[in-house]
Specification:
Length: 294
């Protein structure tokens, strides 16, 4: 501001843009007498500027000193906040609700520690699929109840120089696992689960392939499929342990689930006959599923 007199209370007669260069006639105390360049009408305005508002250019004679208004203060670069993430991404996934799942099951059987079993069976690959519902109890705790179609069983093979016998035991069940889940907070929720399973046997079949060799070549091959449900327990039960991830996908979530089924019931049913420890067979299964939760 250019004032009429060298006094902070004096009338302001004009203003000078920041960075303008002015001719200084003389200095009076803390004030400079400065001339503003001619305007469009050819009029020159002379007034006083306080020394705190100007910067004296060095190397100029006092009678020709020029003052410049201080340069504008450096502007601070304002960082722009990133745009908000799309719905369901980068936020804690919604917990609870229905889910649809499907995957593969590697099933086998286990024997008691004192069982006299030398040839152990191998895993049978099957299918598992169904629905589930998660009841949220707290931000990090939930109970999940599922209804699944689960193909269990095992494979067994006996070989010799003259014959080869392959057995595929197929036990199809309706499985109802009930698990308590601990859900770690985060955008990609990781969870641990544990509980128990009750399963109902739908069918039990033994598929046998017998191959006879003569002089190292296949002489004959016979395949049979026998219904053995009457020798299979109608129900199965045991413990279930698992873990998984929940990945938000807008209004739904992708679920990656892994489980281990540890059967505790004897899958062989001999009626009133007492079964020896060698006849105790318990189901086992390793399961990996993908699903969508809503």
């Amino acid at each position: 501001n250019v004032r009429l007199e060298p006094d902070p209370d004096s009338k302001i007669i004009t203003s000078v843009p920041m960075g303008a260069i002015l001719a200084v006639s003389y200095q009076k105390g803390e004030w400079y007498m400065a001339e503003r360049p001619k305007n469009d009408q050819g009029i020159t305005i002379t007034g006083y500027l306080h020394m705190s508002d100007v910067e004296v250019v060095s190397g100029v004679a006092p009678q020709q000193q020029k003052t410049v208004a201080p340069p504008p203060p450096p502007t601070q670069t304002q960082t722009q906040s990133p745009p908000p993430p799309p719905p369901g991404y980068g936020s804690t996934p919604k917990k609870g609700g229905f889910k649809v799942m499907g995957g593969v099951s590697l099933a086998n059987v286990g024997y008691p520690s004192d069982a006299d079993v030398t040839d152990k069976p191998s895993y049978r690959m099957g299918f598992i699929a169904g629905l589930g519902y998660e009841f949220q109890l707290a931000p990090s705790f939930a109970i999940e109840v599922d209804g699944l179609y689960h193909q269990k069983g095992f494979k067994y093979e006996e070989k010799s120089a003259d014959f080869d016998t392959k057995l595929v035991m197929k036990v199809d069940q309706v499985s109802v696992p009930i698990m308590v889940k601990y859900i770690f907070p985060g955008s990609t929720a990781f969870y641990l689960a544990g509980g128990f399973e009750v399963a109902f046997v739908l069918s039990s079949k033994a598929d046998v392939t017998e191959t006879i060799y003569v002089d190292g070549a296949v002489d004959s091959e016979e395949k049979t499929s026998t219904d053995v449900k009457e020798f299979t327990s109608s129900t199965d039960y045991g413990a279930v342990f698992g873990a998984g991830f929940v990945l938000p996908m807008g209004i739904s979530k992708l679920v990656i689930d892994g489980r281990y089924y540890l059967g505790m019931a004897n899958m062989l049913d001999f009626g009133e006959e007492a079964a020896s420890s060698d006849d105790w067979v318990r189901s086992r299964a390793i399961v990996v599923m993908l699903g969508l939760a809503f």
